[in-house]
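Lecture notes, continued. The same structure-token format from the folding unit now serves as the input rather than the output. Read the line below as a description of shape only.
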């Protein structure tokens, strides 16, 4: 606070400095007022969009040691993402939204250069050649589809120029862990054909001991690449062909047995005689073409294909005893096509209109049994999802100050489930969902640096099948979220201070939740079910202070109160006003970046961020609770020319918290996996 007061007191002395960022020679992240986003499928200033948006720039990714999307979103209010049972299985907490294991739909749409990435498996990829990450908070289904019920994560990669540019880094961290990355971009034919190529390699012995096995529980080896060919055939035509790959072999399904009475105690290491191993192969390809009709619109076509496969072998009794083992095969394959027309004519009226089609297939098979005996195999489960959608969104500026935005989307989805049990005729089931989504917002610019807005949006998460269930629990319905929001975006002190805040209220109908269900005459099943009604009031605020080109501060705070109002159909009054599990009610973050010359040759580059997560419940009974935790990360380096030598610290506070919980798995005992402990090391990087 004393430092902040001193900075504010010194404001007049620096009033003539530009609030703009990335002046020549500066490596500081861009000031919020200078950041351009494509949240509405067009380029515009983030401060002019009537949506709460957090932006992570390329320089922040480097300065803050952000390796994956999971790292990047830690700077976003109300949003917490943790590794669940393994890196491709995420536990998400955001405004009442959470994940549903492998079977359910991820609550965020992840988009890379305009291409939607299917499934949460692709959320684990390393950040390769990334220019900017935009986190749009609140339902974004109008433009991004049914997978954007909580929001959208819009990623743009570095665009090539006629000059060759690249960077590389190598690091060593405790574990030990060795990492290397490199990227290069430039022309093949100047002004016409360009390329991008990037790769990251990681070899990690892990930080979490397995008490009954020599191999650490969280070991991992992975290679991630992203490459692109970009053709600028004419002044009006751009075509991009991209490919991304991930191959990994990592630890997974490490779970420790913890008595419910000791749930909030110190972290417990797993003790499994069989090391959990998850082998993953991800492939994604896309072809994107943009053709501009001058003073009218840009026609965009996006064709995409992806395939993800995971094979897991693991302990099934979660103990040192050599009793049970399990395997899981899981494949997700998808093709999608989008056609979109986006206006580019000058004037007060701006619009988008388009259509979308996706054909997705998921296959799953598993075995479980005693070691040394023939395992029990579950039948292969095949699910196919065919989705068709039309959408439109338009904005009209009545005056220089007042703008209205409205949007509409309609999704049709046909689902097929086939239980391919070899001992009986294949069971084939069908279900169809139809769902409208909409959005309306009104923004008012009191002056060039202050905007107020109010919005309504409806989000949608599709229903599906529970492959391991039977009878009436074999399927579950869709989830809708009606979100009402008011907020403002502001800049002052010559745009050196940016302060944005919003309050929201979300009304869920049929919220999807993974829970145990007892059905008379059928049995007990852990399945995805629909909670009849949930409400979530909350607020968020973000602050950035940039007194000079060399120094910046940022902070955020988020609060959400996700309460059950009506539970399952057979018992609607149960757990009334209990908190939805896995939702952090309060988050806060403070960070700082420094880039200051030490001499004519050397500069000091430093980043630090502290984040606070409030208490969180892990069961619907609200009996299992984790106390608040604080996390600290830092990276401090010396730069000489294009070279930087940095010291890196991750989770320096050594805070340990559950990342995945099997609540009451053994009656009065639960199964837990924890986040990774403190890690530190050194990194050498170069730009060229």
């Amino acid at each position: 606070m004393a430092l902040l007061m001193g900075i504010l007191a010194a404001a007049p002395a620096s009033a003539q400095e530009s609030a703009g960022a990335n002046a020549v020679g500066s490596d500081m992240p861009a000031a919020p007022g200078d950041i351009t986003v494509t949240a509405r499928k067009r380029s515009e200033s983030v401060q002019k969009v009537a949506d709460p948006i957090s932006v992570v720039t390329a320089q922040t990714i480097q300065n803050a040691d952000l390796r994956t999307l999971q790292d990047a979103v830690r700077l976003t209010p109300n949003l917490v993402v943790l590794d669940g049972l393994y890196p491709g299985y995420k536990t998400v907490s955001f405004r009442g939204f959470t994940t549903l294991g492998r079977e359910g739909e991820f609550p965020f749409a992840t988009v890379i250069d305009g291409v939607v990435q299917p499934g949460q498996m692709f959320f684990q990829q390393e950040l390769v050649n990334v220019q900017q990450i935009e986190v749009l908070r609140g339902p974004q289904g109008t433009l991004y589809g049914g997978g954007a019920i909580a929001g959208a994560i819009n990623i743009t990669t570095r665009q090539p120029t006629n000059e060759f540019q690249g960077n590389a880094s190598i690091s060593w961290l405790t574990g030990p862990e060795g990492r290397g990355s490199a990227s290069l971009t430039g022309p093949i034919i100047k002004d016409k054909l360009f390329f991008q190529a990037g790769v990251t390699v990681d070899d990690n012995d892990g930080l979490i001991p397995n008490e009954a096995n020599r191999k650490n529980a969280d070991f991992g080896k992975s290679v991630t690449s992203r490459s692109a060919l970009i053709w600028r055939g004419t002044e009006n035509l751009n075509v991009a062909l991209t490919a991304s790959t991930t191959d990994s072999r990592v630890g997974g399904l490490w779970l420790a047995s913890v008595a419910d009475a000791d749930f909030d105690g110190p972290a417990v290491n797993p003790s499994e005689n069989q090391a959990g191993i998850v082998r993953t192969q991800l492939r994604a390809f896309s072809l994107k073409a943009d053709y501009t009709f001058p003073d009218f619109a840009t026609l965009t076509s996006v064709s995409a294909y992806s395939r993800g496969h995971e094979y897991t072998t693991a302990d099934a009794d979660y103990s040192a005893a050599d009793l049970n083992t399990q395997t899981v095969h899981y494949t997700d394959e998808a093709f999608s096509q989008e056609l979109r027309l986006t206006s580019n004519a000058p004037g007060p009226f701006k619009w988008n209109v388009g259509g979308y089609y996706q054909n997705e297939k998921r296959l799953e098979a598993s075995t479980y049994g005693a070691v040394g005996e023939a395992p029990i195999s579950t039948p292969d489960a095949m699910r196919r999802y065919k989705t068709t959608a039309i959408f439109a969104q338009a904005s009209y500026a009545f005056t220089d100050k007042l703008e209205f935005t409205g949007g509409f989307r309609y999704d049709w989805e046909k689902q097929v489930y086939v239980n391919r049990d070899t001992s009986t005729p294949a069971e084939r089931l069908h279900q169809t969902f139809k769902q409208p989504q909409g959005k309306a917002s009104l923004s008012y610019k009191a002056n060039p640096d202050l905007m107020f807005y109010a919005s309504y949006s409806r989000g949608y998460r599709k229903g599906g099948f529970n492959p391991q269930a039977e009878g009436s629990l074999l399927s579950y319905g869709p989830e809708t979220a009606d979100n009402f929001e008011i907020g403002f975006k502001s800049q002052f002190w010559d745009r050196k201070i940016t302060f944005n805040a919003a309050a929201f209220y979300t009304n869920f109908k049929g919220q999807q939740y993974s829970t145990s269900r007892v059905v008379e005459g059928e049995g007990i099943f852990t399945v995805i079910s629909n909670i009849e009604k949930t409400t979530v009031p909350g607020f968020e605020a973000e602050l950035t202070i940039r007194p000079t080109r060399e120094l910046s501060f940022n902070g955020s705070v988020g609060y959400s109160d996700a309460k059950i109002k009506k539970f399952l159909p057979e018992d609607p009054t149960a757990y009334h006003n209990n908190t939805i599990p896995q939702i952090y009610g309060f988050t806060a973050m403070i960070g700082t970046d420094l880039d200051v010359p030490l001499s004519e040759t050397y500069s000091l580059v430093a980043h630090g961020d502290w984040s606070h997560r409030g208490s969180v419940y892990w069961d619907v009974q609200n009996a299992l609770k984790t106390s608040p935790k604080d996390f600290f990360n830092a990276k401090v380096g010396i730069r000489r020319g294009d070279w930087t030598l940095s010291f890196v610290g991750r989770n320096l506070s050594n805070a340990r918290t559950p990342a995945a919980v099997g609540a009451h798995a053994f009656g009065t005992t639960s199964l837990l996996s924890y986040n990774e402990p403190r890690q530190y090391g050194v990194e050498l990087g170069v730009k060229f």
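Point for the exam: The domain at 32-687 is CATH 2.40.170.20 (Maltoporin; Chain A).
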